[in-house]
Each structure stands twice: as C-alpha cells, then as structure tokens.
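Hi all, long-time lurker, first post. I run a small reading group and we've been trying to get comfortable going from sequence to structure in the token notation. Rather than ask abstract questions, I figured I'd post a concrete chain and ask someone more experienced to write out its structure so we can walk through it together at our next meeting. Sequence below, copied exactly:
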Amino acid sequence: MTVDWVGPGGKGDTIQLFDPTAKQGEGALVRERRLVNEDFDNRKVRIIVPTEPGFYQLRYWNRDDRKVLATRQIEVLPAEVSLSAPASVDMARPFMVSWVGPGAIRDSIELYDPDGDNGNGKFVTAKRLINGDTEARTVTLIAPTEPGDYELRYRNGDDNVVLATRPIEVVAMEVSVAGPEAVDMGRPFDVNWVGPGAVRDSIELYDPDGDNGNGKFVTAKRLINGDTEARTVTLIAPTEPGDYELRYRNGDDNVVLATAPISVVATAVSISGPESIEMGRTFEVSWVGPGSNRDAAEVFDPEGDNGNGKVVYSKRLVNDDMDHRTVKLIAPIRAKTYQLRYLDGMGRKVLATAAIEVVATDVAIMAPDAVPAGEMFTVEWAGPGAYRDSIDVIAGDPEEGKVLASARVVNGDLDARTVKVRAPKQPGEHTLRYWNGEFREVLATRPITVE
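-- Answer (accepted) --
Happy to help. Here is the structure in token form:
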C-alpha cells in the first residue's frame, strides 16, 4: 500500500508498520521503509501489508530523536486467496494453475510433496507469479516424474507464509524407447519414443561399460529437435563397437524414464588414393565407411606442427560423390610423404589411413623483362595450375607486398599454360610471382620492370 507522510524527512527517518498486540501486548515492528528510498517530492512511501489480518499501527519514526512523531491505526482485512488446477496430471507434463491472491512480486505457486523427505514434506518446484501471466493470473508448472499425491501451494514471498493449498495427483504414463537391435558404427539411426515429450526431455545413447565400468554418456538429442509428430529422433552410432543403451531422460528432474539395449556393429573402413601425386594438384580418393554427416577425408602431415602432426587439407564426404564414395582433395605444395585419413567427425577419431607421396613439380614463370604501364602482356607458366592459382605483379615483398595486378591461371589458356596480365599503372621495379591460392604460398618469382 502507499502511505502519504508529512514530517522532517531526515536521512534515517522511516515509516513503520507496527503490531501493538504482538509479543503478548509488548508490540513488534512488522515492516519499515526508509524515506530516502522512496518518492521525496510527493512524500509517499510503499509498504507491503502483512498476511495476518488485524489492527496495526502506521508510525513516523525519527532517527535523530529516536522517537515516534506520528501514528495512525490501520486494519488489514482478510484477502481471498485460492488455487485452481486439474485434479490430476500426467507425470513430467506441463500444466496450468490459476490463482487468486495478492500477486506480490515475491509470491509464488509451489508444488509440494507432503510425503517427501521421510514424511517431513519436500518442496518439488515453484514459479514466481511475475514469471507467469499476471493478467490472466496463471502460471505453468511441470509435474514431477514420480507419480503420487501432491499439493499446490500459494506462498507469500515477503512473510514466507502459505496462504492457500489444494491437492493434485500426478499420474503414471507409458514411457518407452525403441530403436534397431543393431546399427553399423558411425551410422545415423532412428529412435521411436513414447513419453511426456517435455521441452527438456531427450533421447540418449549411453555406454554402461564406459568410464571403467561407471557408465558414460555418448550422445543425445532433444525431443524438440526430432520429429515430434512421429515421435522419432535421429542419433549417430559411435565408432566403437559394443553393447549400448538407449535412454529416455526427463530434462526437468534429470531422471531416466525408459531404456532399451542396442548393439553397435563394426564395419569395414578404408581410404585409398594414388601412390603419388604432383604438388598442388587435385586428386580423387575412394573411401569405404559410415559416410556420416561430419565424416571427412584428410591429408595429414605426420611431421607437421613440430612433430605433433598437422591436417593440411580436409573435405567433408557429404560435399562430394556419395554414390561412388569418392572425394576430391588437393595435394600440398611441399614434396614429402603424407597420410590420407578417414576421420569420424562425431568422435574425432581416425578410422583408416593410407600413405601418399607428394612429388615436386617444376614451377616457373616466363615473361618480358619490361612491359609498358597499363598494357596487357603474356606470361607463360609451369606449375600445378590449381583452381585458385594466379600470376601476380607485386610491389615490395613477394609474400606480403601489395598486389598491383593479378590473373587466375584458370582464366587463361591451360593447355598452352599462358595467361594475360594487365600491367599496373605504377612504373617501377616489381616482382612477378606464381601464387598458390589454396595454401597461400609463393611458388616462383622473377623481376619485372613496368615502364
């Protein structure tokens, strides 16, 4: 309620709500509000009325003199407080509760288990009224996963007093998960489910023998991310063969409601390409394996990153020819022995490898020693001729200098290995370079004068 006041308005002055009958007639302070925390211009202060009906006293208390300067009596009347909800609700399902009451900022609707905690009663869940629909006076709660008789309660947040209760029954419902008896490793598979389908519920794949026999979570998918009409989700089998468990997990209580066994079966995995390939060239790799969405074929340098190994080039299998199980990769520009790898994208595990040697090729550029500024001139080149390769005119350092002119080799005559470049307008001594666009390295250079 709002209280108007007239008085000194000192820094420590307060408006108090006092119960003169408390403590066997000695009286007790129920509420107080500092004037500095309220509307000084309009001389108003807000105080929350207690939940106990009766006659109280409003008091102006002066801090400096530690005296009550003014009083007036106020009666707190009983207020209607009630709850309405379904008589029963399926376990783990959301349900709506309508309420009548003060609707104060800290008030909440609770779900309480009278038999919980060995008969001492146990709080289950709650929702602040301000988090529901305050106009329609409704909140939504989620039923627990344990069937039984519960109690809805309206709790006043300021006095921590329960103002109204009503019973509600949580009813058991069918919950199940079903998938194939066995699935090839790394392959996607569908799981059918029956259950509450709450917003945080998920279907999990669990390894009972994982983590040294303590069990280990493998992967999961929220039900809302699957087909909620057909009640199916798609999971991806791990790459480790063995006996696993499908589980329906309720996200609110973090309780497993149903399980079903599933076996992951080993499948053949291999990768093969040419024994050798010229540097920078595109080449085809054949593969056998799960072919899952995140699986990839890689070119790996075992000696890279100071001996720790380094992925040089990678391509998702789904981005190439899935029918023929082939993928196109690009050879690195360093001549040495590399490794082709089949990578399981989900588990980040290498499932198959094969050696491949990258062979050095001649890289050269032939052009006039001097060209007129702004004129076209022809450059002959030898090199990989890859899609992003180019012939550039560079001012300054060949690696990091400014590109003054450029022409992609694929835009020239690939058979004759020539490309036309327009000379920059800036005269001077520059560098002509062969640039490998895929690995962003200079493979050949020669000086050129722009006149």
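A couple of things your group might point at:
The chain has a mean pLDDT of 92.
The radius of gyration is 38 Å.
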